[in-house]
């Protein structure tokens, strides 16, 4: 297969981990005889520094014209304490999602057997956890009308959802559930929010088309509890943008290291793959960043193009690295490897 | 002291646990020579059943004219799967908060030494946790304009905050921090929401009046992670209504039993005290509901009226019960006591 991939490695540890993901894809390319071409572009704080714009037009055009986007991370401490700055790295990411129509953010959360003891949660609580979170990514309060009155004393954000926005991600989530343990949990706040009541209505309607999938409804406050009390009860979680942001970050802690968690953002014509850990500026350039989340994001890319055997090869490499504890300091305090060496091991393994 | 207390015991286990809280207050009354009078009123599903209204006018009037409200719980399974029903128990609670102006919801979260092993989190993670969450309770997306178009295909909720709404609860939270470990963490999503940026601006401004308090800002997604990774880092958490709902329920899991967690809802003229566990319909009438959250809510009531020694007496009784494991089945599977017997022990202890 021929694939053109835009590489937006961004800020902080983004470049370091993304280059390990590229290396893994190169290994796949050689072993399975595919042609992947990689094209770099700017995003985030580095794009602001160089062009004044967190998402330069060139970057957007490149992303829209390639088959997939490999994303690193964005964010720089110099913007962190000033969320009111007129130009900020996050704006680049939010605009990218919107412009590319990446309406479904998919985050797998898995408790790896070899890492059960790294979790802040007890082993018996997390054992067997294997969740796929489907978060709506281009609607809701993130993109609704914002308002600040002239005096700067009243501020508002609108959380709006249309039936169509709910339908398209719901179909993806139900299809995923059919291939998994056939359970879908809608997380909402339907006892308070009108938009949540629409989610519940639309999902109830769609559920009829997927009669083999069991549907559950959970209020977001209860979901935040259940995620800690009994995470293995979940299979596919479906939810709106803001609740998905919170619940998926909460869930990311289960596995013992946020350095393992990959994500895919999917639209009708574009797709983007991204480790969820963010730019982690304190670690930049030290060779201590865990590349596994980026590498697993590359595996999600392959799965998206139905290259299942290829994705499996990457995942096997990752699991081997975890098993042998050939990992970075977040997982291995005694005898850690560098970012690059972990990438090398997985490359060689493939 | 003379106090008139409205008792809204509500649904499910509400009546059972509330009567134990009243018993504890009666013990205090005798020992410290106060006069507490209790007046019952309807709220929730039981109020719908009897009057068609989850918050009858009589109840509202009673609450507005007494010194304090002791609240049990609301909610009944017959409404749970139908959040679109025109009349629902939650509406009673939300209207009560709004009409009484209870803008600050305060939830202490503590890891009791005697219960460290009951938590889904590891002992070393939760040890020393002692958080006081200040959640704004009468604004934000809960009470903003809701809209559903005629075709029922587009729904929205407005999250709006004014400077004044933010100020009044912030002052309470800063004052609380001054009496505690002098740290306040504002949880928001200022990198996305206009309303969060107003929170950050107003809180930064107010912080100048409390120069002995250290202020931190945390995005809500990160807060959801930190609550599990390292809960003992927090002292006072201040946040808006919806984030507070999610984060405080998440935090409630730390201590090992949600049956221990009390709350206070405070306004300028009224106050209400409530266990956070909800109506727990499956347990109703079985004598297995943990009365401690309700009893500790009564202690918060006493603290609100500056009866510190009295509150201490209740808390000592609770701690003794925990120490001796004289508790209900949620905490004691071997030799559990009934709801009533736990209440009796604390009564006798006082
Ligand atoms: C950086 C931020 C705007 C973003 C979000 O809230 O969506 C991030 O937290 C994420 O989850 O990808
Ligand atoms: C019952 C519900 C409306 C309520 C809320 O969301 O505020 C509850 O979850 C709470 O936290 O008291």
Describe this structure in words.
The structure is a homodimer of 350-residue chains. With 350 residues, chain A is α/β, with parallel strands linked by helices. Helices cover 42% and strands 21% of the residues of chain A. Chain A contains 13 helices and twelve strands. In chain A, the strands form two sheets. In chain A, strands 2-1-3-12-11-4-5-10-8-9 form a ten-stranded mixed beta sheet, sandwiched between helices. Chain A is globular and about 50 Å long. The complex binds 3-isopropylmalic acid (2 copies). One 3-isopropylmalic acid (IPM) sits between chains A (90, 93-94, 245) and B (191-192, 221).
Largest beta-sheet characterization of chain A: 10 strands, mixed
Hetero groups in this structure are:
3-isopropylmalic acid
| Major interchain interface with per-chain residue totals | A-B, 61 and 61 residues
Spans of chain A of at least 5 consecutive residues whose pLDDT stays below 50 are none
Mean pLDDT across all amino acids of chain A? 96
CATH H-level superfamily title of the largest domain in chain A:
Isopropylmalate Dehydrogenase
Oligomeric form of this entry?
homodimer
Q: How many individual helices of chain A? A: 13
CATH C-level class of the largest domain in chain A is Alpha Beta
Strand portion of chain A: 15-25%
Shape of chain A: globular
* Second-tier CATH architecture of the largest domain in chain A: 3-Layer(aba) Sandwich
**How many separate domains of chain A?**
2
Radius of gyration of chain A: 20 Å
Q: In order across it, which strands form the biggest sheet of chain A?
A: 2-1-3-12-11-4-5-10-8-9
Number of strands of chain A: 12
């Amino acid at each position: 297969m021929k694939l053109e991939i835009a590489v937006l490695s961004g800020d902080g540890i983004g470049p370091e981990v993304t280059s390990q993901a590229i290396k893994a894809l190169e290994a796949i390319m050689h072993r399975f005889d595919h042609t992947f071409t990689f094209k770099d572009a700017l995003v985030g704080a580095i794009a602001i520094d160089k062009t004044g714009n967190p998402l330069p037009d060139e970057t957007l055009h490149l992303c829209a014209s390639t088959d997939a986007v490999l994303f690193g991370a964005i964010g720089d401490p110099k913007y962190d304490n000033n969320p009111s700055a007129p130009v900020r790295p996050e704006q680049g990411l939010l605009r990218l999602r919107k412009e590319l129509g990446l309406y479904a953010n998919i985050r797998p959360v898995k408790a790896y057997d070899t890492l059960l003891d790294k979790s802040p949660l007890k082993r018996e609580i997390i054992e067997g956890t294997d969740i796929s979170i489907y978060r709506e990514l281009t609607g809701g309060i993130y993109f609704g009308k914002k308002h600040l009155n002239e005096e700067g004393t009243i501020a508002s954000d609108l959380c709006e959802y249309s039936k169509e926005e709910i339908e398209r991600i719901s179909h993806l989530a139900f299809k995923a559930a059919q291939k998994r343990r056939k359970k879908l949990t809608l997380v909402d706040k339907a006892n308070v929010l009108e938009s949540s009541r629409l989610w519940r209505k639309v999902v109830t309607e769609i559920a009829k088309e997927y009669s083999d999938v069991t549907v559950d409804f959970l209020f977001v406050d209860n979901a935040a509890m259940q995620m800690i009390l009994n995470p293995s009860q979940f299979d596919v979680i479906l939810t709106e943008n803001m609740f998905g942001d919170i619940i998926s970050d909460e869930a990311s802690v289960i596995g013992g290291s946020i350095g393992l968690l990959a994500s895919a953002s999917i639209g009708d014509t574009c797709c983007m793959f991204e480790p969820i850990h963010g730019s982690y500026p304190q670690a930049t350039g030290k060779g201590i960043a865990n590349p596994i989340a980026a590498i697993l994001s590359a595996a999600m890319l392959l799965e998206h193009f139905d290259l299942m055997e290829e994705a499996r090869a990457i995942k096997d490499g990752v699991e081997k690295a975890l098993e042998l504890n050939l990992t970075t300091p977040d997982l291995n305090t005694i005898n850690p490897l560098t970012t690059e060496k972990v990438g090398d091991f997985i490359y060689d393994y493939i």
